[in-house]
Amino acid sequence: MRIIRADNYEEMSKKAADIVKSQVILKPDCVLGLATGDTPLGMYSELINMYENKEVDFSDVTIFNLDEYCKLNRENAQSYFYYMNHNFFKYINVKKKNTHIPNGNAKDIDEECRDYERQIKNKGGIDLQVLGIGANGHIGFNEPAINFEAETHLVKLDEMTIEANSRFFNSIAEVPTSAISMGIKTIMQSRMLILLANGEAKVDAIFKTAKGKINPKVPASIIQLHPNATIIVEKYAAKLL
Ligand code: GLP
């Protein structure tokens, strides 16, 4: 596993955007796996600038997002569907039909999960997966004690995650308690992974991910076994590395 250190959030975001841009230049019809949360917002801004400066073209790119809340309307500003459209997709030339986010309102959630997995396979798998990390070490919504063999599946959110994500909602009672998430197996099958982290809240999770024992209690620790994984970490989150 490679560790790239950055002095600040802007540098972390720029380095991540450079890697995504390189991937798209190398393989214009590549498949990107993308993440939500505060962490990758700077990377999306950089990529939008690069697109506007004609440094990168997303017209043949396919995107699969990591996860989506269940039972939240897609038009709700806290849905990941809304987040991706409003923070990234609407500013670039990716084709709508090539963007995929699990449908957390599907009637048959298990079938939705199987279908998501099928669609990823039909596209030849994910070339580059971008990850953030929860303070409890989750990636996507793969919470501690996850089964490492899981593919896209329904997850019950951890109390710590509900608490952390309640900052985006009016009250904790509004935070969805379940979600659809790519599984660890899906994530590990990506040909390349980059995990971004910044801020003191991630110190412990980053230390355990990079230097701890591989353990389902720290889901991100499994990426130590990935042949092409890179952590891009800003100095406050890297304090214990
Ligand atoms: C969320 C998402 C993750 C994200 C993580 C960290 O719950 N499901 O994909 O990486 O929490 O979010 P943030 O970047 O806001 O700290």
Output the keywords.
binds 2-amino-2-deoxy-6-O-phosphono-alpha-D-glucopyranose, Rossmann fold, single chain, globular, 3-stranded antiparallel beta sheet, alpha/beta, 7 helices, 241 residues, 7-stranded parallel beta sheet
Describe the structure in your own words.
This protein has 241 residues and is α/β, with parallel strands linked by helices. It has one domain (2-234): Rossmann fold, CATH 3.40.50. Helix content is 30%, strand content 17%. Strand 9 (192-197), helix 7 (203-211) and strand 10 (229-234) form a beta-alpha-beta unit. Helix 1 (9-26) crosses helix 2. The two termini are 13 Å apart. The mean pLDDT is 97. The structure holds 2-amino-2-deoxy-6-O-phosphono-alpha-D-glucopyranose. The site of 2-amino-2-deoxy-6-O-phosphono-alpha-D-glucopyranose has 14 residues, from helix 5.
Quick summary:
By secondary structure, this protein is of the alpha/beta class. 30% of the residues lie in helices and 17% in strands. The longest helix is centred in the N-terminal third of the chain and has 18 residues, at 9-26.
Topology of helices and strands:
Layout lengths: L1 E5 L2 H18 L4 E4 L6 H12 L9 E4 L1 E3 L10 H8 L11 E2 L8 H14 L5 E4 L21 E4 L2 H7 L12 E4 L2 H5 L3 E6 L5 H9 L17 E6 L7
Parallel strand pairs: 1-10, 2-3, 2-6, 3-5, 6-9, 9-10
Antiparallel strand pairs: 4-8, 7-8
Helix pairs in contact: 1-2
The chain binds 2-amino-2-deoxy-6-O-phosphono-alpha-D-glucopyranose.
